[in-house]
Design goal:
The protein has 14 helices and 17 strands. With 491 residues, it is α/β, with parallel strands linked by helices. The longest helix is centred in the middle third of the chain and has 16 residues. It is globular. The N terminus is likely disordered. Pfam families: CbiX (PF01903), DR2241 (PF18069), Fer4_23 (PF18009).
C-alpha cells in the first residue's frame, strides 16, 4: 500500500498547488430516523484520516447528508475512490449507489471495481468491504476476543448472517467466509446460519456438536439484531451462556461482537481502495471549482459571516461558530468544542434530542460554540451544512444545474418507484410540510433565488434537487400513510 507524506485532511485555503491528491469516499446507508446509523462510517473515516494515506476521507449517505447526489461535489481531488460500507453485495451496492452517483453502471460490480470520469474527476467504485477476503481474518479476530483459547479439538464457529430470500448475494458472502474459516483449521466445525433464511440460527442446537461454540455476527454495526434478535433466537443471556441439556450434550456459547465494528475493517477498506480498477499511485489534481468555492467562503469567514442559522466570527486566526441566536451570549454558558467531529456530534440532534437527517431544517440546536482553525473550518462547515458551500457558490456563479422533480421521480427504483405516480398536488402537499421547515429554496420546483449567502443573504441557500427525505415523504403520501408513522421505512 502506498505510503505518503501526511497532509491536512480539511479543505485547503485559496487555490493551493496540491498535485497528486487522492480522495477516499465512504458510502453508508444512513437513516431518516436513527442518528446512530451513520456512526460506523464516521468512526472508520476518522481511523483512515489518522493513517494519512489519503489527502481526505469524506462520508456520504443514501438517507443523510451529504447525499449520494452531492458527495462528489464535496471532494477536493480529481482522483476519487468510493467504497460502499455494506456487508454484502445487493440492491444498494449494485443499483442505488451507482445510479445516484451517476456512474452509468447497474448490476454486479466486477472484482476490480468500476472506473468512470465524471465532471473531470476519475471516480473508482469498488465492491462493498464485507465481500473482501480480508474479512475472514476479522471473523477470526472477533472469535478470539470472545474465546481466546479456542481450539480445533472442541470449538465450533457459527458465522451468522442476516440473509434474505430476495437476494442470494446476501448469503453468499456468509457461506464463503464459513468455508474460509473451515479451511483455516482453527475450529472443529464451522456453520453458516441466518436470521431470515434457512438454515436459521434457532436450529443451532441440532446442527452444532462441539461443546464450545463461538458465534460471530457478520453484521456491519451493533444494533437491534445483534443486541436483541440474535440473543433471543439463540436463548443467550450474555456474552457467555451455558446450555446443559442440549441434544448433543452440554454446550457453552460465546457471543462475539459484530465484524463490522472491528478496527481491522479499516485495513480491508484500504486494500479495496488500492486494488480498485485503475488505482493511481500518482493521484489527481486539486479540483479547481471546489478550491475556488472554499477560497471565496474563507474570504467571507475572515470578515465574519452568517450562513443559515450559524454565525461564524474570526478571532486571531481561529473561527468561532455558534447559533446566530446565541450571539452575545457569554461563552462560559455554552458547550465548547474544538474539532469538526465535536461540532458534528453537537449538531446532529435538535434540542429535543431528535435526529436531524436534513441539516438545513430550522432545527439547529442552541447552546454550543465551536472554535476551529482555518484548516479545520471547511470540514466543520461540511458537517454543519453538508455541500452548502459548494452548491451555494455554484449558484452564485450561475453554474448550478437544478434537477426537476419529474427527473428525480423517474430515477427512483424499488419501493420508491411509486413516487412516479405522485400528482403535482401530492408533491406540493409534502412540500408545504417538509420544505417549509427548510432553509433552502427549491430550485428543482422552479423557485427563484436571486442571491445566496455569498451575496450577503444568510438564509439564501439553493436546493438543486429533492432530497431523499422528501422522496420518502412523497412515497408515504402516495401510499396514503403520511401522518401515521411517516417515512418509517428505512430501505
Amino acid at each position: 500500500m502506498r505510503e505518503s507524506v501526511r497532509r491536512d485532511n480539511s479543505a485547503p485555503g485559496p487555490l493551493l498547488d496540491c498535485p497528486h491528491m487522492r480522495s477516499l469516499v465512504l458510502i453508508g446507508h444512513g437513516s431518516h430516523l436513527n442518528g446512530e446509523s451513520a456512526g460506523a462510517v464516521y468512526r472508520y473515516a476518522e481511523l483512515l484520516r489518522e493513517r494519512g494515506l489519503y489527502d481526505e476521507v469524506v462520508e456520504g449517505y443514501w438517507k443523510e447528508e451529504p447525499s449520494l447526489r452531492q458527495v462528489l461535489k464535496t471532494t477536493r481531488s480529481t482522483d476519487v475512490t468510493v467504497i460502499p460500507m455494506f456487508i454484502s453485495e445487493g440492491y444498494f451496492t449494485e443499483t442505488v449507489i451507482p445510479r445516484e452517483l451517476g456512474l452509468g453502471h447497474q448490476g454486479p460490480v466486477p472484482p476490480e471495481g468500476v472506473a468512470r470520469v465524471l465532471g473531470g474527476k476519475t471516480v473508482r467504485y469498488t465492491l462493498p468491504y464485507g465481500v473482501h477476503p480480508g474479512m475472514a481474518e476479522v471473523i477470526l479476530a472477533r472469535a478470539r476476543e470472545a474465546l481466546p483459547d479456542l481450539s480445533p479439538q472442541d470449538t465450533a464457529l457459527i458465522v451468522l448472517g442476516h440473509g434474505t430470500t430476495r437476494n442470494e448475494n446476501s448469503s453468499r458472502v456468509i457461506y464463503r467466509n464459513a468455508e474460509l474459516m473451515r479451511d483455516s483449521g482453527h475450529f472443529a466445525e464451522v456453520h453458516a446460519l441466518f436470521l431470515d433464511e434457512d438454515p436459521k440460527v434457532g436450529t443451532w442446537p441440532e446442527v452444532v456438536r462441539a461443546p464450545r461454540v463461538v458465534v460471530v455476527p457478520f453484521f456491519a454495526s451493533e444494533g437491534w439484531h445483534t443486541l436483541e434478535t440474535i440473543p433471543e433466537d439463540m436463548g443467550l443471556t450474555g456474552e457467555v451462556t451455558s446450555f446443559p441439556d442440549n441434544p448433543h450434550g452440554p454446550q457453552t456459547v460465546y457471543y462475539a461482537r459484530p465484524v463490522g465494528t472491528h478496527s481491522a475493517v479499516a485495513d480491508v477498506i484500504l486494500h479495496l481502495a488500492e486494488e480498485a480498477r485503475g488505482a493511481s499511485e500518482r493521484g489527481g489534481d486539486e479540483d479547481r471549482s471546489h478550491a475556488e468555492a472554499w477560497a471565496a467562503f474563507l474570504t467571507l469567514a475572515r470578515r465574519g459571516v452568517r450562513v443559515g442559522e450559524a454565525l461564524i466570527t474570526p478571532h486571531g486566526g481561529l473561527y468561532e461558530l455558534r447559533h446566530a441566536l446565541d450571539e452575545g451570549r457569554p461563552t462560559d454558558s455554552l458547550t465548547t468544542v474544538v474539532t469538526p467531529e465535536g461540532l458534528r456530534d453537537l449538531t446532529r440532534r435538535d434540542e429535543g434530542g431528535h435526529h436531524r437527517p436534513v441539516h438545513t431544517f430550522r432545527t439547529l440546536p442552541r447552546g454550543w460554540r465551536a472554535v476551529l482553525s482555518e484548516a479545520d473550518l471547511p470540514r466543520g462547515m461540511g458537517y454543519l451544512y453538508p455541500a452548502v458551500v459548494e452548491e451555494g457558490y455554484a449558484h452564485h456563479l450561475h453554474t448550478l444545474r437544478p434537477t426537476p422533480w419529474p427527473t428525480t421521480a423517474r430515477r427512483q427504483t424499488g419501493i420508491y418507484t411509486k413516487v412516479q405516480r405522485a400528482t403535482p398536488e401530492q408533491v406540493e402537499n409534502v412540500a408545504r410540510d417538509v420544505c417549509s421547515r427548510c432553509l433552502k429554496t427549491r430550485l428543482w420546483a422552479g423557485e427563484k433565488l436571486p442571491a445566496t449567502f455569498f451575496g450577503g443573504v444568510p438564509g439564501a441557500i439553493p436546493c438543486p434537487e429533492a432530497c431523499t427525505y422528501f422522496i420518502a415523504e412523497v412515497r408515504e403520501e402516495v401510499s396514503g400513510k403520511r401522518g401515521a408513522g411517516s417515512h418509517g421505512h428505512e430501505d
